[in-house]
């Protein structure tokens, strides 16, 4: 990758880069006014960004491990790329359903198509990252959603939040809804039983118990988050057990679960996007940690030639506009309690990791 040398001289350069007008400046790099072109407080900005390979056009390549038509988490990433690219006159090449084992070859294939930016839709595809140091990808920038297993390297820009915060807040909001329904039973439906999904279920349960310690959670792993039939089957079993709320966590089965929940008068949450305006199906709680919102902020920087590699942006609940949670039709009391909860997470009064650790 051709880069502009990093120059950290004088106090003027210690200020770093602002993210967007609507988000906070909590990069790992120091924050402050707009940067000197080509300079970041940490990391390097690829020369010529956004036309990193200098061919006179800008092409963004997107790889996603999930269904990019799921109307939720995975689709939001591709939609963000498409919407922003259309405004800029850029091209987008996207591919969904990429298996982690195929991530490296898929990234190389994108680079051969002369993309300027390789964007991974989720950290499950982190096995693609070694391509960033290979000759085939030498003239590309990289955007990578981060989790604890993704190592920062000089060739990639990392974007992360804390899933414990997201899911704890989801559970807390669901607990308030259950309280209003005089119920103490909740459901959680995910695809594969993996570390990310089991930890998400624990965080959701921890949030529920912050409202009512007696609340019980039924957790179902279907093996495939994109299979609507399996999602409905799991939801039906939970509904038969008397749950008052169920959470379809990620994947293309979300709407199928929500439709069944709607017909059974069971509250349902979104996995990542704001769908409070949706009516078919309807949602009771929007849990908003959309990768599309995070990606749009990065694309704005990329367009301005200010997206540095070797830097991580950490999104914080109660500090940044995302992640957050909202009850779609709250009572004034519920709305105030959610707002207070988000603020307390932001100040550190509520430690999501510590709360999740209380769940066995």
From TrEMBL:
Q: Does the keyword Transport apply?
A: no
User: Per the database record, which ranges form the ABC transporter substrate-binding protein PnrA-like domain?
Assistant: 57-320
The answer to keyword DNA-binding applying to this record is no
Outline the segment boundaries, as ranges, of region: Disordered. Answer: 29-53
Q: Known Pfam families for this protein?
A: Bmp
* Residue stretches of biased makeup (Low complexity): 29-44
How is it placed in the membrane, per its record? Lipid-anchor
Question: What keywords are annotated for this sequence in UniProt?
Answer: Cell membrane, Lipoprotein, Membrane, Signal
- Give the location in the cell: Cell membrane
Extent of the signal sequence = 1-23
Check the record and name the InterPro entries matching this protein.
Answer: BMP_lipoprotein, Peripla_BP_I, PnrA-like
**Principal subcellular localization:** membrane
Q: Which family does it belong to?
A: Belongs to the BMP lipoprotein family.
Q: What is this protein called?
A: Basic membrane protein A
From what organism does this protein derive? Kineosporia succinea
**What does the organism's lineage look like at the top?**
Bacteria, Bacillati, Actinomycetota, Actinomycetes, Kineosporiales
């Amino acid at each position: 990758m051709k880069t502009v040398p990093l120059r950290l001289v004088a106090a003027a350069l210690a200020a770093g880069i602002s993210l967007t007008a609507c988000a906070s400046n909590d990069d790992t790099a120091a924050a402050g006014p707009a940067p000197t072109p080509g300079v970041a407080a940490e990391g390097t900005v690829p020369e010529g960004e956004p036309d990193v390979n200098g061919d006179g056009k800008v092409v963004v390549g997107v790889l996603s491990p999930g269904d990019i038509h799921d109307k939720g988490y995975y689709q939001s990433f591709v939609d963000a790329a498409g919407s922003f690219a259309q405004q800029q006159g850029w091209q987008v090449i996207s591919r969904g359903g990429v298996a982690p084992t195929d991530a490296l070859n898929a990234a190389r294939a994108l680079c051969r198509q002369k993309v300027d930016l390789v964007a991974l839709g989720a950290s499950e595809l982190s096995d693609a990252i070694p391509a960033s140091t290979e000759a085939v990808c030498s003239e590309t920038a990289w955007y990578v959603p981060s989790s604890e297993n993704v190592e920062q390297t000089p060739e990639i820009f990392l974007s992360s939040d804390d899933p414990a915060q997201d899911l704890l807040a989801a559970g807390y909001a669901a607990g308030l809804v259950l309280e209003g329904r005089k119920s103490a039973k909740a459901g959680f439906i995910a695809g594969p039983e993996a570390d990310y999904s089991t930890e998400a279920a624990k965080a959701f349960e921890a949030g529920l118990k912050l409202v009512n310690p007696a609340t019980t959670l039924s957790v179902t792993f279907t093996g495939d988050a994109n299979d609507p039939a399996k999602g409905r089957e799991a939801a039906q079993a939970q509904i038969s057990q008397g749950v008052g709320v169920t959470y379809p966590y990620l994947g293309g089965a979300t709407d199928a679960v929500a439709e069944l929940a709607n017909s059974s008068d069971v509250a349902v949450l979104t996995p990542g996007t704001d769908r409070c305006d949706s009516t078919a199906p309807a949602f009771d709680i929007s849990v908003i940690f959309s990768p599309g919102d995070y990606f749009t902020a990065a694309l704005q920087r990329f367009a301005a030639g200010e997206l540095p590699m070797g830097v991580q942006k950490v999104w914080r609940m109660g500090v940044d506009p995302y992640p957050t949670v909202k009850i779609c039709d709250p009572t004034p009391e519920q709305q105030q309690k959610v707002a207070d909860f988000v603020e307390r997470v932001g100040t550190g009064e509520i430690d999501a990791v510590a709360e999740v650790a209380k769940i066995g």
